[in-house]
């Protein structure tokens, strides 16, 4: 009985440390940041300047996505003892655990999209990098195509050329 109580206490403490505490920390820091961004906007407006809403939108969207994505994992951690003792089959339990981890990982993947939607300079940076990567890739593919065409023409001229000779000739 003492081992069960100790295990249950550990599972509950683990649930709070890994699920609830980070979620509340994110929520509280988001409220704090939004409050300061709102104050900065008011001060900027009083002095005749303008402050875009992009900082507030970025912080709010990131915090909302994080809060929503962590709910399944936090609930699973919080109710782990009930979940472990439930009559669900092992395959269903594994699927639930995988789904909660997948939903949590969506938070990481969503940050790039949130930044692209809310921060114009980040969006332009990503566009430029994508353009440069595509240009570099097309140059590599074009060079490879020329190399393959050259090796095919060598192979056609010398019908007895070995594959090794064709590969070295293409370089």
Description:
The protein is mainly α and 171 residues long. The chain is built from six helices and no strands. The chain is flat and about 80 Å long. Residues 165-171 have low confidence and may be disordered.
Secondary structure class reads: mainly alpha
**Into which percentage range does the β-strand content fall?**
under 5%
Number of strands: 0
Dominant shape? flat
In round numbers, the mean pLDDT is 76
The string of secondary-structure elements, in order, is: HHHHHH
| Distance from first to last alpha carbon | 73 Å
Number of helices: 6
Q: Major beta sheet, specifics?
A: none
| Uncertain stretches | 165-171
**Radius of gyration, whole Å:** 28 Å
Helix content: over 70%
């Amino acid at each position: 009985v003492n081992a069960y109580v100790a295990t249950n206490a550990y599972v509950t403490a683990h649930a709070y440390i890994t699920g609830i505490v980070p979620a509340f920390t994110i929520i509280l820091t988001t409220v704090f940041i939004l409050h300061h961004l709102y104050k900065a906007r008011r001060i900027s407006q009083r002095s005749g300047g303008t402050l875009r809403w992009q900082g507030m939108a970025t912080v709010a969207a990131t915090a909302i996505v994080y809060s929503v994505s962590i709910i399944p994992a936090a609930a699973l951690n919080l109710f782990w003892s009930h979940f472990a003792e439930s009559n669900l089959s092992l395959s269903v339990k594994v699927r639930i655990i995988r789904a909660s981890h997948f939903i949590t990982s969506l938070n990481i993947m969503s940050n790039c999209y949130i930044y692209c939607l809310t921060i114009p300079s980040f969006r332009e940076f990503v566009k430029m990098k994508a353009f440069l990567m595509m240009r570099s890739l097309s140059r590599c593919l074009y060079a490879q195509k020329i190399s393959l065409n050259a090796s095919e023409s060598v192979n056609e001229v010398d019908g007895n050329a070995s594959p090794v000779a064709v590969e070295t000739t293409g370089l």
